[in-house]
Amino acid sequence: MTAPTDLSKSQENEAPFGFDELFYSRTDKRGVIIAGNEVFHRVSGFDWSELLGAPHKIVRHPDTPRGVFRILWSALGAGHPMGAYVKNRVRNGDIYWVFAVLMPVDGGYLSVRLKPSTQLFDRFREVYVKLSTRERAERLDPEVSAGELRALALAEGFSSYTSYMAFALGQELAARDARLGRPADPRTQRLIDMNKSLERVTQEQTKLLRSFEALQSIPNNMRIVASRLEPSGGPVSAISENYKASSLVISERLRSFVAGRDNLCDRVSRQAARALFLLGSNRVLKEMNAGFRDVAAVEGIDWNVERNLLRELEARSYADTRDAMMRAVGHAEELFRASAEIRRLMLGLDTIRVLGRVECGRMRDSSGGLSATIDQLDIFHADIKNRLESIMRLSEEIGSSMNQFMRADSR
């Protein structure tokens, strides 16, 4: 893999640190630094006396959009972990990039950061340059900027920004293993694979809703055709009315699990994304915890407190991962059942569609546009059934993968 290209590298020097190194810092709820490790101390260029008690933004670089921090603080404030690519500034003006995993802890927040190197990292550097430039030029509110980043996640095919960052963390961990000559970690690969299934569900649900919305215009077309072909209340008119009534029932069921706030697909995505991000976070915490076994004394930092905190957080993140997975499995099973129910309801629509085809054949050459309308129904019905079957298959994959992970991990 080629080294990432920094769009502003001609003006900036990048502070060196290794792929084997992890940054650690902990702050209070105001973001004031309480503790950090030697990697953070060395790379930042600040003395301990300058770091401890200082706001964490002492290392913030203005090229990291403020919207990134709005997303981070929003997640942490709600008690959820979150990740982000962050460009930081060294005391002497140099810069360094990290992928940061941030988690709430008692009395504040904790961050473990690793060196990023993937093509996705390149993508985010380009996005950050454009977005931070807009923030300054247009005086964008951080919430507007955060909205741009969330929209980016959706545009890239992800159900949420958390899911996007779970994917990013999995990619960065896998790339880091490769650069350090480590064998591929099965947990990380599982994270990546499950995330792919999750995002395919999101894509299928969007396409399914579009297909069904397009289907809603067809009964109107049938009524227009019927008005030219037969007296009021004729068979084609009756077929179109029956079709409309049945499709409205299905439409309401469909919207309950693929559209609207807190729909069933979103609940699957939210819990699965949380589980996947926690899965990657747990691995980072475990490695960071191991790195605290032999550290030099620093005035103002009680390493026993930091070790205990990390051990507790590692155990809690593991428990939270399993809890989120169990919730995701439950939602995935519910999604499977809802999709199967709608597929059964589609059989009723198929019967009405067949009656329309029979009536079209009876009218023969006088059928006008009825044949073309029924052809449209054939296409949309096939597409909708394929989407439903895909969602059922993917929801089974997600549930099965998470169940297998929990069984394997409990041995």
Automatic annotation (TrEMBL):
CDD domains in the cross-refs: PAS (cd00130)
Taxonomic superkingdom: Bacteria
SUPFAM superfamilies: PYP-like sensor domain (PAS domain) (SSF55785)
Coiled coil: none
Chain ranges of the PAS fold-3 domain: 35-105
Matching Pfam families: PAS_3 (PF08447)
Protein name: PAS/PAC sensor domain protein
